[in-house]
Design a protein that fits this description.
single chain
């Protein structure tokens, strides 16, 4: 993934009652407004979702590196 280009995705929390685990996310998309509209549709269906940028994801992933080693 190119972290130089800002991308966005919908993220599903453990409260979304998904069978695939406690945390899942949709595909990356360059248009934040589009991702926000997608999130609103899912919230209207009572799903607990938010949005995340690829920069936020990279920051979170780099904080996991120390915990795994």
């Amino acid at each position: 993934m190119d972290f130089k280009q800002l991308l966005w995705r919908v993220v599903y929390t453990k409260n979304a009652n998904l069978h695939s685990g406690a945390f899942c996310a949709g595909p990356w998309h360059p248009d934040k407004a589009h991702v926000e509209r997608c999130a609103e549709v899912l919230r209207a269906r009572q799903l607990d979702v938010g949005i995340q940028s690829n920069q936020q994801a990279q920051k979170n992933a780099s904080s996991w590196d120390g915990a795994l080693g």
